[in-house]
Design a protein that fits this description.
The protein contains ten helices and five strands; from the N terminus they run E-E-E-H-H-H-H-H-H-H-H-H-H-E-E. It has 274 residues and is of the alpha+beta class. Helix 7 packs antiparallel against helix 8, helix 8 packs antiparallel against helix 9 and helix 9 runs parallel beside helix 10.
Length: 274
Amino acid sequence: ETGDIGIYGEGKRLHGKLVPHYQMYFAGSGMKNGALAMKGPALPVVRIKQAIERVQEAHLASGETSFFSWARAQSPDYFKQLLSDLAEVKEEELQSVMRDYGDAADFRVLNLGGGECAGVSQALIGSNFFEAAHEREYRNALVFQRKLDEALHCNEAILRLLGSGVAQLLGGARQDDLSLIAAQLRQLAPGALAEEFVRIAGNLDLGEEISIEALAETSAAVDGWTIQAATFATEKDAQLDLAEALPIAPTGGVNTAKKVAAATGAKQECGVTA
């Protein structure tokens, strides 16, 4: 990394949610007698402008002309301490940092469909499916970065979101514990959907080091269950539009949303199949 201030996008899990962050770097130079940039704190994306302005103000106040020389003269924890309040996110502040820079809405995109016919159940489970898609995108990026443990936690989050969403669609209560979700699914939707959830959840092994092959197998199972859950949900609520929230089919690269759409019939208006 070279440059006075550098930023690198990543996701960090705070209070159970993935929040878009920028990892900051300072005082890199590719010139003679230069050096690679020093790693600074990771901050929520929506706070990065304020962070850069604060660093610039501190540099100008020092009277040192060269940013490189000034930054290199600071203590190892200087930038972490300077920006500590921007790095900290309290649970009640979570919604304010769930956005990418310049966006007015949450980082994930919701497109539930259904128009005026959309109901409460659609809003709840539709939101869960799109948040699960957000987790899946991060999971795939984390695998590329070889952060396998973090990627595995994304799979856990996907199961929690969708399992609880299906249970709520059927009148159950919101749960965060996978074992409690599994028990609800077995009670409310006994059969293959519930049993596959139990099997996958039981094989997560969050406390164990995981190989990339084992993670790939788990991720494929989670994505497969996502498709099953979407088919089940759309059969229960024909107005659900989950097309943009589903993983790509493992064979032929066909979007699984088409399979879900086919399972629920042709064009639909207010619950009536045309």
